[in-house]
Amino acid sequence: MAQSEFVYVTYIRTTPEKLWRALTEPEFTRQFWVGTTQECSWEPGASWRIVVPDGRVIDSGEVIEIEPHKRLVLKWRHHLFPEMSGDGDSIMTYEIEQMEDSVKLTVTHVNDKSGSKFIKGVSNGWPQILSSLKSLLETGESLESTRSWPKGN
Amino acid sequence: MGADVDKIFKALAAPERRLLLDRLHADNGQKLGQLCEHMNMTRQAVTKHLKVLEDATLVATIRRGREKLHYLNPMPIHEIAERWIGKYERGRLRALAEIKEKLEGETDGSI
């Protein structure tokens, strides 16, 4: 395969509206996305970034496509780990579909480079973050391991 | 969990299906034809196994034009691990797994 890609699918007992808020509003992302906040006006072409508690920007990019409660496509560049930021831009997509009694969230993350270190890196982080998101929406509590930014990073 | 837990364990209970997951783990995003290569079974049998894996949400598929690509979806396995592995055990388990890997030599990740 010429590119690196990961696909994650999780089913969450919630509504597309609540899931959308959890994915985009800082008071929610902080709880399941290791204490980080996302800064964005959530409009096509708007700049987007993930900020850690000490103010550093660890990822940034822009909104390529946005359809609230349904679909979000972000251009994504990593900044924290040099070995990962060398891979350049990647594309991350959220797709939200209402199922019978739950909402299906599909997250895809693609980088044009084959064997991308960045994609390998995020593939360790995403399952943890998405499990915690699911827990937050279904039980009101995120998973403890994802509530704060890891010390020393 | 989206697919019920029984479905996930039943899907994992067949060695052919674990082999398909191993092949996706090694090279994610494959077409049916690629997955059929080196499998000692008919295309129909592979299709059937993939359907079971898809129903259990262990495999996610994405259409790219006329092609259907298969991806290993690690979410259900991650959620199973979250259920029984305590947060303080994670580091110790990783260390033990590394020792085991070193002592037993390189593993190819197959079951």
What gross morphology of chain B would you assign?
Answer: globular
Strand order of the largest sheet of chain B: 1-2
CATH architecture of chain B: Orthogonal Bundle
Classify the beta-strand content of chain A into a percent band: 35-45%
CATH homolog superfamily of chain A = START domain
- Alpha plus pi helix count of chain B: 6
What is the CATH fold-level name of chain B? Arc Repressor Mutant, subunit A
Poorly predicted tracts of residues of chain A = none
Q: What does the average pLDDT of chain B come to?
A: 87
Topology:
The complex is a heterodimer of chains A (153) and B (111).
Chain A: E1 4-12, H1 16-24, H2 26-32, E2 37-40, E3 47-51, E4 57-67, E5 71-78, H3 82-85, E6 90-98, E7 103-111, H4 117-139
Chain B: H1 5-12, H2 15-26, H3 32-36, H4 43-55, E1 59-64, E2 67-72, H5 75-84, H6 89-104
Antiparallel strand pairs in B: 1-2
Please explain how this structure is put together.
The complex is a heterodimer of chains A (153) and B (111). Helices cover 28% and strands 36% of the residues of chain A. With 153 residues, chain A is α+β, with helices and mostly antiparallel strands. Chain A has a single domain, classed as Alpha-D-Glucose-1,6-Bisphosphate, Chain A, domain 4 (2-Layer Sandwich), CATH 3.30.530. The longest helix of chain A is centred in the last third of the chain and has 23 residues, at 117-139. Chain A is globular and about 40 Å long. In chain B, a hairpin with a 2-residue loop joins strand 1 (59-64) and strand 2. Chain B has one domain: Winged helix-like DNA-binding domain superfamily/Winged helix DNA-binding domain (Arc Repressor Mutant, subunit A), CATH 1.10.10.10. Chain B is built from 6 helices and 2 strands; from the N terminus they run ααααββαα. Chain B is globular. Chain B has a two-stranded antiparallel sheet. By secondary structure, chain B is mainly α. In chain B, 23% of the residues are buried. Classes of the chains: A alpha+beta (153), B mainly alpha (111).
